[in-house]
Structures are given as C-alpha cells and as structure tokens.
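re: ur msg from earlier - yeah i can do the NAP complex, just paste it... oh wait u already did. ok heres what im feeding in:
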Amino acid sequence: MTKSALITGISGQDGAYLAQLLLGKGYAVHGLMPRRSSDTLWRLRELGIANAVQLIDGDVADLSAVLRAVKQSNPDEIYNLAAQSFVGTSWQQPLLTAQVTGVGAANVLEAVRLIQPAAKFYQASTSEQFGLIQAERQDEKTPFYPRSPYGAAKLYAHWMTVNYRESFGLHASTGILFNHESPLRGVEFVTRKVTDAVARIKHGQQKELRLGNIDAKRDWGFAGDYVEAMWLMTQQPQGDDYVVATGTTTTVREMCRIAFAHVGLNYEDHVVIDPQFFRPAEVDVLLGNPAKAQRLLGWKASTPLDALIAMMVDADMRRVA
Ligand code: NAP
Ligand code: F7E
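and the outut:
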C-alpha cells in the first residue's frame, strides 16, 4: 500500500528535501501551499520534483484549510514545517509569527485529533527555544529560554505537541533541530547570505558584504541529513522529543572565513559590520547534544561544515555565473 504524507511548508528548504526523501521511499506526497503572487516553487523545481508532489491550496493559519488538506490527503504522516521562520523578521511581525508559527501548529494538531488521529505527527521545533542557554550543551532536558518572538511562538507549538501526545495519545514528535543549511537555504539567513555574496564578489558583481554580530556561534548541519531524522521519528513505535544537531559550534566569522577561502578570497577584505543587522536580543551560542537521536534513531550528522559551505558556495557560483 502506498503511504501518504502531508507536508506543510513544502516549498521551504526542509519541505523540499523532505518531499524528495519521501518520494524516493514511494510515498504519495501532498503539500499545503499558501497562495503567493510570486513563484515559490523554485526549490521543488531545482530538485526536479515540482510535478511529482500534489499541492493543496491553503494557509496553516486557517483551520478550515488545514482540515480540508488533511481530509483530502488522508495522510499516514504529517510534517508541520510551515512557519514564519526568520528570527529577524519576528520582531517586526510578532503577531503574524505567533499566528503562523505558533497557532498554525495548533491548527494542524487539531486537524489530526479531529479527523486523522492515527496519523504520525512531526513538529519542527528549534534550538531557538534554548535562546539564552541554560546548559553548555543543550539536550532534550535543557530548560528553554527563547529570545525572540519566533522562539516564543515555537515554544508554544512545541508544548502543544507534547500536550496533544500526553492528552490524546497522538503519535506526535518534536524534532528540536539546530541550524541546518543547504544550497536551498533562503538568502536572508546568514550562511546563504554569505555564500551568495562570495559568488557575487568573485564574479565582480559586488564588493562588500554587510553583516551584524559575527561573533555569534551556531551548530550548523546539512538540511539533507536533517530531514532523514524527521522521517526516522515518525517510524518509531511512539512519539518523542529529539535534539538533532552536529555537536560542534562555530562562529559566523569562521564560517565567513571558510566560504571566502573556498574561492581564494580573504573575508576581512570584504566583510563590513553594519549595526542594522544586529538583533534586539541575540542568541550568542548554540551547541546541541544529539546523543538521544543517535541512540534511539540511529541518526548522526554526516556532513562537516567545510563540506557544507563548499557545496553552498559552488551552487551560488553556478547560479551567479
Ligand atoms: P523556510 O525555508 O522558511 O520554509 C518555511 C515554509 O513555510 C515555506 O514553505 C513557507 O512558504 C511556509 N509558510 C510560511 N507561512 C505559511 C503559512 N501561513 N501557511 C502555510 N505555509 C507557510 O524554513 P526551513 O528552513 O525549511 O524550516 C522548516 C521548518 O523548520 C520551519 O518551521 C522552521 O521554523 C523550522 N526550523 C528550521 C531550522 C533551520 O535551521 N532551517 C531549524 C529549526 C527549525 P512561503 O515560502 O510561500 O512563505
Ligand atoms: O542567524 C548572525 C545572527 O538568521 C544566525 C532559522 O532557520 O536557525 C535559524 O535562525 C546568526 C545569528 O539563523 C547576520 O545574529 C550576523 O546570531 O542565519 P540566521 P538563526 O537566527 O540562528 C534556527 C535554528 C531556526 O529555527 C530559524 O528558523 O548569524 N548574523 N550577521 C546574521 N544573521 C543574518 N540573518 N544576517 C546577517 O547579516
């Protein structure tokens, strides 16, 4: 029997890789897609799967649309990836972020509870929930302390998922994923902003790159590896919470050095610090402990940061050329 999956946020970085993974496993893949006036299918097209997925018109903040999508797709597994996911924007649009990133998850949980309670549910939780870190290495037991409207909205979605698991017996999991990147990353996020600029500078189209706090540290992995962890969670006998990370942390500064050096440039000749990119509150450092995911899911990050950055710079060099 062909399995059916519903992915909210299918047009995003993770949605595209997850759709590719599930199609490869023989799933019928459905995606909830909000109407946009501009093209948002570029990632699915880059992976060559735009015509292989079935798109359902709807916004995750609209319960009626979510109910209809669940009914129409009759899913065995539901992956809730839809979000206003850019931390910087969450201070400019805190209520929209709450509606989409927070209440949107509750809408999907309600739809599962009401019409598809046997479906396995995955919630895209985040290391941003740790924010002002309460332990040097963060794991599933580390207390949360979000530092942005995005982190606070995700925390609501996270606890709603745990609550629905405990209250209604749903097979509901949260993946507390640390930063993960790829050539399909949105250009507003720092890694892709850097690799895109490196390609433009190398091609003589740009001279400088303006950044904010380059002393911030992140635990960066490859999105292609991380969607495997999402799928492994829905294959377990019961729902649970898992940290997904590499277990190493690196400054934005060092990430810049690697990216510029990949094409023979020195980042210090091009990076300019610009106060407009500093945030009202910063998450200074994140470092995950993925031991539980390794032990119970058999999952381990397999792409080192320099290989990831090289992959991203090479893709942007091709695009800019
Ligand atoms: P992304 O590229 O920003 O993708 C977000 C997706 O959500 C897009 O398809 C977007 O569609 C969709 N979306 C936005 N508003 C929506 C709405 N109102 N209704 C339905 N869909 C909506 O994010 P990502 O990097 O793939 O991340 C996937 C999920 O994991 C997100 O929930 C994110 O918060 C979370 N997460 C990401 C990371 C990371 O490092 N990447 C780490 C931890 C957790 P449009 O493009 O049309 O707006
Ligand atoms: O920032 C610093 C910035 O925007 C990383 C999302 O996927 O991962 C992502 O959130 C760091 C921060 O990612 C610039 O201040 C410096 O310290 O790439 P980012 P993020 O905020 O960590 C988490 C896990 C998610 O869940 C989110 O959805 O880089 N930084 N200068 C900059 N960041 C940006 N964007 N732009 C700069 O110019």
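cool cool. Residues 22 and 245 are 21 Å apart (CA to CA). ping me if u need the other ligands too
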